[in-house]
């Protein structure tokens, strides 16, 4: 069940499983009186999970229908137009990609999707012209994969994954770049959930190493390699508290193997040059 946060008017939606179908029910409460404003059998069977959310303006009920982990679909109910027994509008029903609803401005819905963009992009869909050819790409795909995105305070907060660390960028509601979010170190972040009307947002920050710990580990690895006269090697170490403990000195660096050179060759050249300068 989901509900909105309007104190004067509260609305609740729930999907009830039947023997072979699901029934969507929307309730409205003013003061202490409840009223059923919508009820309808869904045409998907109960084996397809359904999740729902009200848009922040309270106008729409957005319905996500899942089918595994690779594709999903979306429908919506216009609570200001639809009579109590109208069908939910099929907005994304091709089952061709993954979609995540981010928010809306009036009859424009914002989605993150991997359709035609394996690393992800953000599109705007006009409910009056919902054909894929009419979509507007607000945040295009990049070489960094989108891990998460939220629409907060009129901005898209987009978290990318680059070399196992997070890069966070801001975009306006029109897709215009608004700069990167400065992070104190190499880390992964999560959160950034909020409302379109809010001016601040909070997030979780998980750092792998402090700059001093990173420099110390690099010094240990280079010293060990220089001592043994190895040309190229990596060193496994454990961190306890603030102290490094090397545990395995002889490790072939997997990023330099033949199977990885198609991607890591530039890095290998630069690393070998740094190693030569160190020696």
Distance between the termini: 64 Å
> What is the quaternary state of this protein?
single chain
- Biggest sheet record: 4 strands, antiparallel
Average pLDDT figure: 82
Shape field: elongated
- The main sheet orders its strands as 1-2-3-4
Total beta strand runs: 20
Order of helices and strands: EEEEEEEEEEEEEEEEEEHEEH
Number of helices: 2
The secondary structure category is mainly beta
In terms of per-residue confidence, which ranges show pLDDT below 50 for 5 or more consecutive residues? Answer: none
Radius of gyration: 25 Å
What share of the residues does DSSP label as strand, in percent? over 45%
Approximately how much helix is present in the residues?
10-25%
Walkthrough of the structure:
The chain has about 280 residues and is mainly beta. The protein is about 15% helix and about 45% strand. The protein has helices spanning about 210-230, 260-279; strands at about 1-5, 10-15, 20-30, 35-40, 50-55, 60-65, 70-80, 90, 100-105, 110-115, 120-125, 135-140, 145-150, 155-160, 165-170, 175-180, 185-190, 205, 235-240, 245-250. It has a 4-stranded antiparallel β-sheet with strand order 1-2-3-4, with no helix packed on it. Strand 6 (about 60-65) and strand 7 (about 70-80) form a beta hairpin. The chain is elongated and about 80 Å long.
């Amino acid at each position: 069940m989901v509900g909105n946060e309007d104190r004067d008017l509260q609305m609740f939606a729930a999907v009830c499983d039947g023997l072979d179908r699901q029934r969507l029910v929307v309730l409205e409460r003013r003061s202490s009186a409840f009223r059923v404003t919508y009820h309808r059998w869904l045409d998907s069977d109960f084996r397809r999970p359904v999740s729902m959310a009200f848009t922040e303006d309270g106008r729409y009920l957005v319905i996500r229908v899942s089918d595994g982990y690779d594709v999903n679909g979306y429908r919506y109910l216009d609570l200001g137009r639809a009579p109590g027994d109208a069908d939910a509008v099929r907005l994304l029903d091709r089952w061709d990609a993954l979609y995540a609803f981010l928010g809306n401005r009036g009859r424009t819905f914002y989605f993150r999707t991997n359709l035609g963009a394996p690393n992800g992009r953000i599109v705007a869909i006009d409910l009056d012209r919902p054909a894929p050819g009419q979509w507007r790409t607000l945040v295009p795909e990049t070489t960094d994969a989108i891990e998460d995105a939220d629409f907060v305070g009129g901005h898209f907060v987009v978290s990318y994954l680059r070399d196992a660390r997070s890069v966070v960028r801001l975009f306006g509601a029109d897709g215009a770049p608004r700069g990167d979010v400065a992070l104190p170190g190499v880390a992964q972040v999560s959160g950034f959930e909020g409302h379109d009307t809010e001016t601040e947002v909070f997030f979780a920050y998980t750092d792998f190493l402090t700059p001093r710990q990173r420099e110390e580990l690099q010094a240990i690895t280079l010293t060990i390699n220089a001592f043994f006269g190895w040309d190229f090697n990596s060193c496994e170490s454990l961190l306890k508290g603030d102290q490094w403990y090397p545990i395995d000195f002889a490790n072939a660096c997997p990023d330099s193997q033949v199977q990885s050179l198609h991607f890591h060759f530039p890095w290998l050249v630069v690393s070998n040059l740094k190693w030569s300068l160190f020696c």
